[in-house]
Amino acid sequence: MALGRQTGNGLRHHLTRAVGVLSRGVGVSPWLVFEQFDRFWARSFKGGGVSVVKHGPKEAEIVYAKCALLQSPYFRSALRGVALGLLEIVTRRSFMSEVSFTATRHEARYRLSWV
User: Fold this and answer.
1) H/E element holding 108?
2) What is the DSSP letter of 90?
3) Tell me, what DSSP letter sits at residue 71?
4) What are the residue ranges spanned by the domains of the chain?
5) Selection from 92, 34, 29, 88 nearest residue 62 by Cα
6) Torsion 23-29-35-36 (CA) sign
7) What is Dmax (Cα atoms) for the chain?
8) Element at 11 (helix H, strand E)
9) Is the distance from CB of 112 to CB of 88 less than 8 angstroms?
10) CA-closest candidate to residue 7, choices 33, 39, 40
């Protein structure tokens, strides 16, 4: 997860550092970042996808699907780190835990909350 977080931090610095600093100051929510998750996925992987489901104002579920790499616990943990690294742009603190993994569908679900 630490390596994934470093990757997310690297993406943050290269793609959105200035926007993040400004957005945190004016109160932009993580929902703006979530709107870009599918673009980040498409640029990084062939096939599969990611979606974000809103469960509350500061709570969401991230679903990664149809990716054989999800069978690897290491890969799933790295994805958590990447997401947390990206969300540090617009949150003071984020929490993310794996809710479920379905090997037959190559699908992983994560619960996410932030302050």
Assistant:
1) strand 107-114
2) T
3) G
4) 2-114
5) 34
6) positive
7) 43
8) helix 2-15
9) no
10) 40
What tens digit of pLDDT does each residue of 23-76 get?
A: 555 667 788 888 888 888 888 888 899 999 999 999 999 999 999 999 999 899
The Cα 48–Cα 107 span in angstroms is 9
Q: Which two tokens stand for residue 78?
A: 């790295």
Instruction: Count each helix (H run) and each strand (E run) in the chain, helices first.
Output: 5, 4
Structure tokens at 104: 């037959």
In the block, residue with structure tokens 């690297």: 10
Say if residue 82's pLDDT is above 60: yes
For residue 47 the two structure tokens come to 């096939």
d(CA 38, CA 65): 11
- What are 85's two structure tokens? 């690294």
Which CATH number describes the domain made up of 2-114? 3.90.1520.10
